[in-house]
Amino acid sequence: MASLLGMTGTFGALDAASPREVTLYLVVGVVAGALFGLAASVVDSDRWQYRTFAAGVLGGVITGEGLYGIAVVDVSGPQWWLELTLGLLIAALIGRGWMSRMLSLGTAAIVALSLLSAYALYDAAMLA
Questions:
Q1: Is 27 exposed, middle or buried (0-12, 13-18, 19+ CB in 10 A)?
Q2: Alpha helices, DSSP H only, in 15-97?
Q3: Closest among 71, 73, 103, 69 to 83, alpha carbons compared
Q4: Which of 102, 92, 93, 107 is nearest to 60 (CA)?
Q5: Domain boundaries, the chain
Q6: Per its UniProt record, what InterPro entries does this chain match (predicted)?
Q7: C-alpha–C-alpha distance, residues 33 and 29, integer Å
């Protein structure tokens, strides 16, 4: 939590972010961090369904961020392609067996596209 506050405070000070943006980043960071941490802890589960879903969520979040960088960010560099590739690899390689891997990739695709939509809504709200 301290690192999130430090990062957000630095962002607010250096980027001249509005209090609304800083508050939004804090709220989203806490919620997303908790969900991401939960998914990471479930990846080690003995139940293949939980492991598959968690791998899809983890890979999907990383893939979605890479997709956002490629599709939306003005200066799209190789880091976005690397992030997209790593997200897909995480989703594909954590599963055990082809069916688990395909389900995990499907989950990752749904999460990535949902995240891209959420980013688009956020950008639209910030520009309004």
A1: exposed
A2: 19-42, 48-71, 78-94
A3: 69
A4: 107
A5: 1-42, 43-128
A6: DUF6518 (IPR045393)
A7: 6
